Amino acid sequence: MDIKQVLSHLDTLLEQQQMSAAADYLDKMAAEAELEGDTTARLTLYNEIIGFHRVSGNREKSYAAAEKALALLRETGMDNTIHYATTLLNYATARVIFRELPEALKLYREVETLYARLLDPVDYRIASLYNNISQALLKSGDAKQGGEYLEKSLAILEQLDEDGVDAAIATCLTNIGYNRMSQGDLKGAEEYLTRAEARFKSFNYYDPHYDSVLAGFGQLNYRKGDYPAAADYFDRAAHHVESLFGRNQNYALCCRNAAAAWRAAGNAEKAAEYEALAASAK
Q1: What is the arithmetic mean of pLDDT over 80-94?
Q2: Which of 63, 67, 135, 256 has the least CB density, counted as fewest CB within 10 Å?
């Protein structure tokens, strides 16, 4: 099987948003690969199916493909390889999407053990894994350990020198800022948001994730009781979102937050103005 050609056709179907046809095509090609005994094609297609049905919301098909891939890797003696770790990672991510967090964390721990054995300690894939573990922990309500994994991810990212790492660092700093704020550490939150802002401002392009920093400063000032400053940050975030994506739901959220800040400041007129802007979003 020419797996590159298969993936190219799949990409075409996805670009054309022919989701039903793409699902059928994946099933058909996986069945053909099984008949041919093509291990490489089978593993590639199973992992594509995991991701496709993670997004489509079909838990059973996503999980079944993951189990098939893992079984095949074990049968072929590849259960101590990066391929096995990657499949475990994809399976864990699907589990997170379907809110099966304890199961997802168990799979992530297996990936962590394999990565420790197979990769250099300073590797982008480990930083990415730590971020994934953090998100699962945060969703399960463990803000403290979730924050610790974010900081472990940051420690690796700051030692790397490769394309895209600066943006990853800026985003990680932002997430740590939010995490510190959720635990009531406003001083720590301000420190990390300030570091994130400096990173984003150093880029020679506008990164949409910078809007999260502005919204974070809005939340921080609201918690500190400086409501006009909070409203100003939410307003700036709203303008940036609108300039990039139009008046979408994120724009509406920023405007509603600005309205809440003005209401807390005792300015009903400004609050009504921003509520109207939020209502104008599509």
Answers
A1: 95
A2: 67
**What pLDDT does 244 receive?**
86
Tokens read off for 80:
């101590």
Residues 156, 245: Cα–Cα separation, whole Å: 32
Q: At what angle do helices 210-224 and 165-182 cross, to 10 degrees?
A: 20
| Residue labelled with tokens 């150093």 | 202
pTM of the complete model: 0.86
Q: Angle 165-182/124-139 helices, nearest 10 degrees?
A: 30
H helix intervals, the chain: 3-15, 19-36, 39-56, 59-75, 82-97, 101-118, 124-139, 143-157, 165-182, 186-202, 210-224, 227-245, 249-264, 268-279
pLDDT at 205: 82
Q: How far apart are CA 238 and CA 211, in angstroms?
A: 8
| 8-state DSSP, 81 | S
Distance between alpha carbon 54 and the CA centroid of its chain, in Å? 14
Q: Please give the C-alpha separations between residue 186 and each of 147, 151, 162, 171, 231, in angstroms, as whole numbers.
A: 14, 17, 32, 18, 18
pLDDT given at position 207: 83
Which amino acid makes up residue 179?
N
Q: Give the pair of three-digit tokens for residue 186.
A: 């406003």
- Quick one: what percent of the chain has pLDDT higher than 70? 100
In the structure encoding, which two tokens stand for residue 232, read together? 């100003």
Residues 6+ positions from 225 with CB-CB distance below 8 Å: none
Residues 6+ apart with CB under 8 A from 105: 92, 133, 136, 137, 140
Q: What are phi and psi of 99, to 5 degrees?
A: 65, 30
Which has the closest alpha carbon to 232: 221, 242, 245, 224?
Answer: 221
